[in-house]
Specification:
The complex is a heterodimer of chains A (about 375) and B (about 290). In chain A, about 25% of the residues lie in helices and about 35% in strands. Chain A is an alpha+beta fold. A six-stranded mixed beta sheet of chain A has the order 6-7-8-3-9-10, with helices on both faces. Chain A has a five-stranded antiparallel beta sheet with strand order 13-12-11-14-20. Chain A has a five-stranded antiparallel beta sheet with strand order 15-19-16-17-18. The two termini of chain A are about 30 Å apart. Helix content of chain B is about 75%, strand content about 0%. In chain B, helix 2 crosses helix 14 (about 255-275), helix 5 packs parallel to helix 8 and helix 11 crosses helix 15 (about 275-285). Classes of the chains: A alpha+beta (about 375), B mainly alpha (about 290).
């Protein structure tokens, strides 16, 4: 049964529609990632779910009960802000104690809880200081501590890693997973970073302009994106998305690309519904393209390309290829990539089974 | 914190040349105050001496005669100045306090819950300070006479509160605008009600802003002459008005007495400003430096 159920949520600020009919369904104990670029409505969704903002339309259910018009206090949802939003005039101990004092908890019990949370988040040595003197990572942990100390059933994390440097981000990702495992709370996590979403979310919801575009496990989103937006959003480097046209006969369709015409992918059957000449988007992941030696017996589709740019990333290298008018990326292990330099021509091959075709007009996947 | 640390370093590095120039400029600005304080301790002869005496035997006579005089027959009488000092402190204090309390609350509203036409309301508040007092003094005087507020503490305190309101609303609003709204929302999520958010979360972050606003408003009110001249009575007269009355006399201006009054008049503002100086600097530079 779903723990948090949001249906048709709408929120606008004057003319600007921040959330436009959002549906969200989170299971109890789940670690759910909300993936979307900035201004896609992540923060507004969170603020509306926890009750700071009032929705213009839609319903919010918590644990089966309608909470659309409940007060912030009644919902009891904890949230970690992107800016951390610590109380600058209170010590770290007082910051942690604040939510419990508001619940009129016994002073002794508060101290016990602070001890627990400080231990969990390695804050014990900082308690008497003001948050302004703490490092970025510590401030982050204080913000999490202040959210956890209430023992909420639902925790919303709004881009909690955005304000941290790269190394700290990595550590904190592991930290979140640990907390989730140990505390067993339901976490919804907003992020503009697909890598964070893929590594942390048990399920991911992709948000676009205030609407949910696709919800699924990381594998589902990666293997079968519902549209070109999700295809471009999930996976790094980004999926190659090339302009293509529906060709072939009415019953045996094919896809025409700048470097050839292909037919036979999982999409072929569905493509027959589209008229010849329909504009399409063809997608193939950089990892699925490989160089083909002239002597090999590779019988799949191939393309002739020129190396335009190389981006070495340590163990792998991204090769930027020019094939006719099309530009696409290919990822190779370093030892394999060493054979190519800028200006070289090569033959590449790919497996049609790994390719995706989207209708250009709607962006919807054809399969 | 970083600002003060780097500041002290730059002072140390400034060297003697710059320190000397700063000292000289400071002395020029300070010289009228110095003249006044010295004159307050001079006898009438010393005060009028040309060239002015820098070294003399100090006397407290002027200070005594601020409060007590002796008639030709030898009887001692009170000048009433102690009452006027009390009036100044009480009226300015209450006026500023009232403006600060109401202004801070109003500015929080303007900052956090903007109304339709928010800017218009703010502008309307500002207009109360746009006209020179001399322009509005006549209608205000008539209003005070009709309502019976003329000459009362309540009247002049309300007037000063109104007078300081525009200033405190505008200044405090800019401070509130600088505060992170996320912090307030975090407090709401933690279960705090609106009053707690305002008093426990917002205000403590704005101690510096409150101090700066209070000092500026206090100085303006403390020095105010025109309204006090026309709207206070014998019992509610403030020091600036009393001082003006003490200036004239059959024997010409008594510079020593006048200087003594002004010196005493300086003391309360000096103490308040001194006590709040740390906050003051932060308040004035609030928002201009990101820390």
């Amino acid at each position: 049964m779903s723990f948090l159920k949001v249906s048709g949520l709408v929120k606008h600020f004057d003319e600007v529609v921040a959330v436009d009919g959002l549906d969200l369904d989170v299971e109890k104990g789940e670690f759910f990632a909300l993936l979307g670029p900035s201004a896609s409505g992540k923060t507004t969704s969170f603020r509306t779910i926890c009750g700071i903002e009032t929705p213009d339309a839609g319903t919010i259910e918590l644990d089966g009960a309608d909470r659309t018009h409940a007060t912030v206090r009644e919902r009891g949802i904890a949230m970690v802000f992107q800016t951390f939003a610590l109380y600058p005039h209170l010590t770290i101990r007082e910051n942690l104690a604040f939510p419990l004092r508001e619940q009129r908890m016994d002073r002794k019990d508060i101290e016990i809880r602070i001890g627990e949370v400080a231990e969990l988040l390695k804050l014990t040595h900082t308690l008497e200081r003001k948050p302004g003197t703490a490092s970025g990572g510590e401030q982050q942990r204080i913000a999490i501590g202040r959210a956890l100390i209430r023992r909420p059933e639902l925790l919303l994390l709004d881009e909690p890693l955005t304000n941290l440097d790269a190394k700290l981000r990595h550590d904190t990702r592991a930290e979140f997973k640990r907390i989730h495992r140990e505390r067993g709370i339901t976490i919804v996590f907003a992020t503009p970073d697909e890598l964070e979403a893929l590594t942390m979310g048990q399920r991911i919801g992709v948000l676009r302009e205030g609407r949910m575009v696709q919800v699924g496990t990381p594998d589902e989103l990666y293997e079968a994106p519902d549209n070109d937006y999700v295809a471009g959003m999930v996976g790094s480097p980004q999926m190659n998305l090339l302009a293509a046209t529906r060709k072939g006969s009415d019953t045996v369709p094919s896809v025409a690309l700048p470097f050839g015409e292909f037919g036979g992918g999982a999409w072929q059957g569905a493509l027959a519904r589209f008229p010849v000449g329909e504009a399409l988007t063809f997608g193939i992941r950089p990892h699925e393209i490989m160089p083909v030696a002239a002597s090999s017996d590779f019988d799949g589709p191939t393309l002739e390309a020129e190396v335009h740019l190389t981006e070495p990333l340590g163990d792998v290298v991204i090769l930027d290829l020019l094939a006719g008018d099309a530009r696409l990326k290919m990822v190779l292990p370093e030892e394999q990539a060493m054979a190519y330099s800028v200006g070289d021509r090569l033959t590449c091959g790919f497996d049609l089974a790994t390719t995706h075709v989207f209708a250009k007009e709607t962006g919807t996947a054809i399969r | 914190m970083f600002a003060s640390r780097s500041k002290s370093r730059s002072v140390r590095e400034a060297g003697w040349g710059r320190t000397a120039i700063c000292g000289l400029v400071g002395l020029i600005y300070f010289s009228p105050v110095l003249w006044m304080v010295l004159t307050a301790f001079k006898t009438r002869q010393d005060a009028l001496a040309t060239p002015p005496k820098l070294f003399f035997t100090p006397t407290l006579d002027n200070f005594v005669s601020v409060f007590y005089r002796v008639t030709e027959s030898g009887a001692q009488f009170s000048t009433g100045m102690s009452l006027f000092f009390f009036n100044s402190i009480f009226i300015a204090g209450m006026g500023v306090l009232l403006a600060l309390i109401l202004g801070t609350m109003a500015s929080y509203g303007f900052s956090r819950y903007p109304l339709k036409g928010n800017d218009t309301y703010l502008f309307v508040i500002l207009t109360t300070r746009m006209l020179p007092p001399i322009v509005v003094i006549v209608p205000i005087f008539l209003m005070f006479r009709i309502t019976g507020l003329s000459g009362s503490y309540v009247g002049i305190i309300l007037l000063y509160a109104m007078f300081n309101m525009a200033f405190s609303v505008w200044m405090m609003k800019s401070f509130f605008d600088e505060l992170s709204k996320d912090v307030e929302d975090a407090a709401r999520l933690d279960g705090a009600g609106e009053f707690k958010v305002f008093f426990r979360i917002c205000l403590p972050q704005l101690k510096a802003g409150l101090a700066a606003t209070a000092v500026f408003a206090l100085i303006l009110t403390w020095n105010e002459f025109l309204f006090a001249l026309l709207l206070t009575g014998n019992d509610t007269r403030t020091v600036p008005v009393a001082m003006a009355r003490a200036m004239g006399g059959q024997l010409g201006v008594d510079w020593g007495l006048l200087s003594a009054i002004i010196t005493l008049f300086l003391v309360p503002v000096f103490i308040v400003t001194y006590m709040l100086q740390n906050h003051l600097l932060r308040g004035v530079t609030f928002g201009t430096v990101k820390n």
